[in-house]
Amino acid sequence: MNKSGLIVCVFAMISSAYAADTKPVKNPEGNCSVSVPANWTAGTLGNGSSPDKKMSIIVSSPKAFNSVMQVQKMAPGLYPDDKVTKSFATEFEMEGKSTSGKPNVYRAVPAGARVCIAEITYENDKMVDARNIVGSLKAAN
Question: Per-residue pLDDT for 86 more than 80?
């Protein structure tokens, strides 16, 4: 096997191992999802939480929004303690403090005629984990 074939094989094994250790949290309509660790609790209302309750996420797709641009205009006013970290037509992210005062990562991506939105809050040093989880937000197939 040549080097490139070995690299592809190793990447596929890592990807499938990661997928096996995760589960989806979907919004109630089922058109948006994120991947959370398999040991998390996933609710039926688009919510999920870590076993120690130090991280929680909510996934939604409000009917009022049909573009990421609309979220870009509205979200900073709702989250005045967040700073915009990504602002594109296909992706919007903010980080800072949620309305509950906990650190958060907020993300929006297109979902057909709607938008998928996820907000994760966390405690302690879980910023990287929070970014990775909310970064998995996508429109469900």
Answer: yes
